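User: My instructor asked us to take a sequence, write out its structure as tokens, and then describe one feature of it. I'm not sure where to start. Here is the sequence I was given:
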Amino acid sequence: MMSWTMQTSAIALAAAAFAVAASPADAKVEGETIVLGSAISLTGKYSTNGIHAQNGYELAVQKINEMGGVTVDGKSYQLDVVYYDDESTPARGAQLAERLINQDGVQFMLGPYSSGLTKAIAPVTEQYGVPMVEAEGASRSLFTQGYKYLFAVLSTSEQYLASAIELAAEQAVADGKQPSDLKVAMAFENDPFSLDVRAGVVEDAERHGMEIVIDDKLPRDLSDMSATLTKVRALKPDLLVISGHSKGAATAARQIGEMNIEVPMVALTHCEAADITGKFGDTVNDFFCPTQWAETLSYTGAYFGSAAEYDELFKATFDGYETGVPYQAAQASAAVIVWKEAFEQANTFDVDTVRDAIANIELDTFYGGIKFAPEGNNIAKPMVLRQIQEGAYNVVAPSKWASEKPNLSFAD
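Assistant: Let's start with the prediction itself. The structure tokens for your sequence are:
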């Protein structure tokens, strides 16, 4: 069993060798093998999550192949994935997508890591009419471009903190208040992802009549949000929501503790990526953190069984995940499952027929439901909200999927 750090070096070397040896013989279907392609971050600033995603792809390929592969027109095929390292650089990702399509003959793509890389590659796959099933680009703007060949298994970014607003509204009613009684403070990084998250929060807060009393942009370097927290102390909001990727989450958690800020409900993205429990301990107890997937959810499907069984298998296959399997890996596995189902439903390798099969897929999986809107985003799976309870991340909303009750009260 290889650790994911060891795998990185091996994969990067393999990718470099492949760059020299690749030829048009590496086509979409070679003999009894269906070849998928992915430019993904194996080095650079996104490499940690890029490797998580790559491991997710590989686990699903392994599982599907062990179960007999993919059957098309009465013949069984194995899956394989060709990877190139995009070095966490959008321009490099677009270049490698063209290489996969034009030089390697790959006509079925898996996505890269991050919205930025997906935004760089999507115009390339669209230009050549190559379907891409992606698992790591959440930005809502990806699905407003009219793309016909882009499909995403994950929930879009405006949903990340929507469940926090819904939970706040429910709790207000339980405490004898109206949702419109609640005051909301917001602080967001000025980047496409976080601004998408903000748009969702604003929409949901307005729908419930909540008053937004602070609407700040985090500083560019994400190292100090004391100006916002000083306003929070003065205005005493009921809910503080923050999105600033990993660094923003760490800064928020640190300074909320340092400044002794007390807010009934604090919700922020990227809690686990920032390791706020490891860094700040009891300070972050009762913080709320959105996630695409959790092993405690009651999702089930044909390939891995339950979410818990997927978690167990992943940990048994790869070293370095003792504390938990990141959702980036789980959704990557779900993307491979979509390809398997699409090939079999199309019963052909004609690219446009396969594309139409993807568009019409409806699946229940260990990762949740999958059904694509005409724009290509998944409309069958909600985000879920976890709360840090005594150092553990427990799903508390939506209530249908909750493993624990939230520690939350807006009572006076």
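For the description part of your assignment, you could build on this observation: The longest helix spans residues 47-66. Try explaining in your own words what that tells you about the chain.
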